[in-house]
Amino acid sequence: MRGGFSLIGLLLVVAIVGWQAKSMFAPAVSHDPNDRSTIEYWVSHNSDRATMLAWCQRNPQQQDSASCQLATAAQMKLDAEVQSGEPAQSGGQGGGVDQASQGTSDQLNASQDANAVDPGGQ
Fold first, then answer.
1. How much is the pLDDT for 122?
2. For the ranges 25-29, 59-63, 105-109, the one whose mean pLDDT is highest
3. Angle CA(85)–CA(104)–CA(31) in degrees, nearest 5?
4. Which string of DSSP letters, residue by residue, matches 25-72?
5. By CB atoms within 10 Å of each CB, which of 75, 77, 104, 120 scores lowest?
6. How confident is the model over 52-70, as pLDDT tens digits?
7. What is the DSSP letter of 120?
8. What residues contact 72, with CB distance under 8 A and at least 6 apart?
9. Domain residue ranges of the chain, discontinuous segments joined by +
């Protein structure tokens, strides 16, 4: 009976040490191209970025969410690349999508300004 408990305890300790070692050696950065928690995702997915920016504009109370912040940061990065003359890394559909997204960003900023002036919403 005593030998059975020590074997179970030993297996439990080995499992805990193995789990900790696995998490210690795991990469801290995700390389999944569909990971929405990276700015690279939002830069490379034009339609998702435009949709998220439009949603953020319609829902001002959610503008501090991680997705809104990442989509806005990706749009700002693309806008900076276009202004500096560097090629945009948006999958070859730079011009029209960037202009539409810029319009969405402008609408978002106008909505934020309007909400700051009129906190009642209407």
1. 47
2. 59-63
3. 65
4. HS-SS---TT-TTSHHHHHH-HHHHHHHHHHHHH-GGGTTSHHHHHHH
5. 120
6. 999 999 988 888 888 899 9
7. T
8. 53, 56, 105, 108
9. 39-117
